[in-house]
Amino acid sequence: MKKKIFLAITILISIVGNSQNKDTIVKKVITIPKNYVSQLDVIYTKVKDWEGKADLYLALNETKPTPVIINIHGGGWKTGSKDTQGGFSPFFKAGFAVANMEYRMSEYAKAPAAIEDTRCMLVYLIQNAKKLNIDTNKIIIMGGSAGGHLALMGGLLGNDHRFDINCLGTENIKVAAIIDKYGIMDVWDWTYGPDHKSSSPAFWLGENAKNETFVKSVSPISYVTKNSPPIFIVHGDADPTVPYHQSVDLYKKLQELGVKSEFFTVPGGLHGKFDKDKNAEINEAMLKFIASLETFK
Predict the structure, then answer these.
(1) Is residue 235 within 8 Å of residue 269, measured between CB atoms?
(2) Radius of gyration of the chain (CA)
């Protein structure tokens, strides 16, 4: 078998647009296989003067539609950028397209704006599936930290369209699985619980910070049912930012309801930033989990 020749997208430094983050961002170099194409800064939604952009990495010359991973960055809903994201090679090798998205930061728009954007990313991919050559039955949504929260919300909502106000018109919204990396599943607990250590949730919630009904409406745990999509969870048991018990509690509820799920604990792991070997181990377990799903058999 011939070795794949890889192409490098070598944009080293970029200033993030939309006036959300004025800091200089060191942009990750994304290496794609020869049979892939990149579409950068694709506008997937617009809200007033804000343009939601995503970088798409697509295998357009495949004979059949490809599965796709939506990647959502973290940063407490107030910092971060799609341009800092990388590590997609395992997914390219497995034949996945990747949609690496950005969303509105809390300085620009409070909750539930970031959830609305996540849902619009899903809708965009579904509506443009034929053009992008992706399989709408094989959409995986993945994120870390606040991105993990958004991945959970985007996937668990399913056909509950309460946060689809900016992208109405698509009834059948579903994901094949959710990859939750040390995400927030109970925003109220993270904001006011005994392990609360971050100002990010209150800032994101804005005027609704004390509105328990609203906070629960933007908490993934509120939407877990026996019909929820399969979920793969990763969390370090020494995480100082998002308490480990958030993932423990989520996994417990998934197991009680019979939802296919797997929990990968990183012993001594902090808030992400796991070493190279551990990340390789996580990716291997993640892809094995996806391959075990009926949709992918």
Answers:
(1) yes
(2) 18
Residue corresponding to tokens 């930290």: 145
Does residue 74 contact residue 147 with C-beta atoms inside 8 Å?
yes
- How many CB atoms are located within 10 Å of the residue 128 CB? 14
Reported as half-sphere exposure (CB side, CA atoms, 13 A), residue 52 has a value of 28
Above 50 in pLDDT, residue 71?
yes
At 226, list the tokens.
């026996």
- Give Cβ neighbours of residue 288 (< 8 Å, ≥ 6 apart): none
Going by pLDDT thresholds of 50, 70 and 90, the confidence category of residue 25 is low
DSSP assignment of 222-240 equals GG--TTPPPEEEEEETT-S
Note the pLDDT tens digit of each residue in 146-180.
999 999 999 999 999 999 999 998 999 999 999 99
Residues 6+ apart with CB under 8 A from 23: 16
Taking only the tens place, the pLDDT of each residue in 250-266 is: 999 999 999 999 999 99
Contact 234, 222 (CB under 8 A): no
**Contacts of residue 256, Cβ cutoff 8 Å, sequence gap at least 6:** none
State the virtual CA torsion across 147, 136, 257, 151 in degrees, nearest 10.
0
CA gap 55, 52 in Å, rounded: 11
Is the four-CA dihedral 179, 183, 167, 51 of positive or negative sign? negative
pTM score of the predicted model: 0.91
Q: Is 13 helix (H, G, I), strand (E, B) or coil?
A: strand
The number of beta carbons lying within 10 Å of the beta carbon of residue 256 is 10
State the amino acid at position 281 in one-letter form: E
Backbone angles phi, psi at 290, to 5 degrees: -60, -45
Beta strand ranges found along 155-195 (DSSP E)? 177-181
Largest CA distance in the chain: 60
